[in-house]
Amino acid sequence: MVMACRVVNKRRHMGLQQLSSFAETGRTFLGPLKSSKFIIDEECHESVLISSTVRLLESLDLTSAVGQLLNEAVQAQNNTYRTGISTLLFLVGAWSSAVEECLHLGVPISIIVSVMSEGLNFCSEEVVSLHVPVHNIFDCMDSTKTFSQLETFSVSLCPFLQVPSDTDLIEEEHGLKDVASQTLTISNLSGRPLKSSELFKPQTKVEADKNTSRTLKNSLLADTCCRQSILIHSRHFNRTDNTEEVSKPDGFQEHVTATHKTYRCNDLVELAVGLSHGDHSSMKLVEEAVQLQYQNACVQQGNCTKPFMFDISRIFTCCLPGLPETSSCVCPGYITVVSVSNNPVIKELQNQPVRIVLIEGDLTENYRHLGFNKSANIKTVLDSMQLQEDSSEELWANHVLQVLIQFKVNLVLVQGNVSERLIEKCINSKRLVIGSVNGSVMQAFAEAAGAVQVAYITQVNEDCVGNGVCVTFWRSSPLDVVDRNNRIAILLKTEGINLVTAVLTNPVTAQMQTKEDRFWTCAYRLYYALKEEKVFLGGGAVEFLCLSCLQILAEQSLKKENHACSGWLHNTSSWLASSLAIYRPTVLKFLANGWQKYLSTLLYNTANYSSEFEASTYIQHHLQNATDSGFPSSYILNEYSKLNSRIFNSDISNKLEQIPRVYDVVTPKIEAWRRALDLVLLVLQTDSEIITGHGHTQINSQELTDFLFL
């Protein structure tokens, strides 16, 4: 990557400054409107276009200790969830700056660790009020509703954080069960921006619907009494069950008896659109893949009475750069690319069912399985006078071919590498050998074709051979899909196979990796939403609730310090308790500032605000109203309910449209928060070179600064 650098002040915490520097490089990836970056290799001058945090970090110099810790945190999040990476990186930077400010004010490290950990735990508990249950998605399949009916909407932010700009859309009393929890971005076909005041007008407490607020708050209060802490960060102390309630400020302790409606999502298309975050083309492919899996499950069962679970391990991608994006599609079966030299073989096999063999390891002459011990003291002696026309590999390849001929096998799938010499011989005998096949693909063909996977070709017998596999070209005209490496796309399938392949195409080769990354991000969002059977209201609503709750906690700590200390730490020393009373509001304030920066950057990246300062001012306006109400979650939900009130301009068209919501996955989001704060606190506690500036007045000014190269 082209070298970038940032000045690092040696008087301040080096590790935290490095984290902030790394995080700064990925701030444009936050939100649905990502700004792509060109990464240029200085040595070979090659470039690639990226728009994800993972690909960015792959191009940065992360050889430092802090860089390696950051990379481990990002890779752990990506390998598990495939989403929440940009949030993690941004919060690492925001909270690193927050901790630096706390250190600058003289806050003890133990207090920073304890209060920030407990503050995040508190946020993780409070956001439960924004859960939307996802139940019976496949019990209410509506074949008439399609993804394209909803994908025309630009969905990104929650209503009161989004500047509307649409003259062709109007609110509708559509059949969604919880209109109070709708989240949307309204797109403007005319391009005329509206002022933020046209969407939201400040409301006095007298004008507010007190009954609605009290009702919506009840679920949060009811959960608070019995809920366990979701995340435990601090190794120094934790709240116990009997102190959990007093740990909350007065505004959070009030109990009411009313209950509010249960907000639900029971439609697959609505859920998919809500989780697409503006990437409609990728999510549409994912939704179609889920539909194919569901239909296949119904066919296999003979009915759809059994619960269906989306199996993401049986979803695969096949990237074909150079083709138009309109060629992207989802197909049942396994689509892969093979050399053009296999063209006559495929033509020979495509009109007949073929027999298949599955090889678990490599299909090479010198391959031995893991744990194999070669016999010692054995030498192969050849007669020097005898002419060896064939090498050992040639003899081995001939033997493999004889085995395939003996059992009438025309298709071999290999999980590892394949001998080039063997491939040539198989092509000449009209047999297809495919290497580097995913283990889940092997298992799927084993289940559907009745094959048994073996480690060596010598283990093949009649019981190991599968039947009824169909081999054909992906397109009727295979030469139309030849890539730059002279490979063609083929389709392998058999009756009842539980495999779905998403074919991803793009005319620009540099964008191919980005397209695949986005597909998997959407796939994992939908997977975790269906697995957990719940989602968050998205578009920044959850982060705004965290910001509001921390703001209230900080204010309560200032007003009732003694009560707050006894609630959080009743078994600690008086010194620690008094220190908490002094510093707790400050630490909570800086922790909340991280959410403030997050939302400001999110709004700024949507291009609706001229600066982050303007976006921050807009957020602060709503924050003040939310904290004044004493019920932040109720305030958020009440703002959603205004979508059905007559708050839009009178010049809006009378055309009715169904407006989709925005959702976020629950566990991946909270885990991104946890990993971000854990990383910041780890760097804080393990870096022993913390220079506060005291006693260093004689140091040369040039020695106080350094450059961090990225």
TrEMBL record:
Belongs to the TCP-1 chaperonin family. BBS12 subfamily. The keyword Transcription does not apply. The lineage of its organism: Eukaryota, Metazoa, Chordata, Craniata, Vertebrata. It comes from Pan troglodytes (Chimpanzee). This is Chaperonin-containing T-complex member BBS12. Pfam families: Cpn60_TCP1 (PF00118). It is found in: Cell projection, Cilium. Component of the chaperonin-containing T-complex (TRiC), a molecular chaperone complex that assists the folding of proteins upon ATP hydrolysis. As part of the TRiC complex may play a role in the assembly of BBSome, a complex involved in ciliogenesis regulating transports vesicles to the cilia. Involved in adipogenic differentiation. It comes from the Eukaryota. Its main location: other. SUPFAM superfamilies: GroEL apical domain-like (SSF52029), GroEL equatorial domain-like (SSF48592). Component of the chaperonin-containing T-complex (TRiC), a heterooligomeric complex of about 850 to 900 kDa that forms two stacked rings, 12 to 16 nm in diameter. Interacts with MKKS. GO terms for cellular component: cilium. InterPro entries: BBS12 (IPR042984), Cpn60/GroEL/TCP-1 (IPR002423), GroEL-like_apical_dom_sf (IPR027409), GROEL-like_equatorial_sf (IPR027413), TCP-1-like_intermed_sf (IPR027410). Keywords: Cell projection, Cilium. One of its GO terms (biological process) is chaperone-mediated protein complex assembly. GO terms for molecular function: ATP binding.
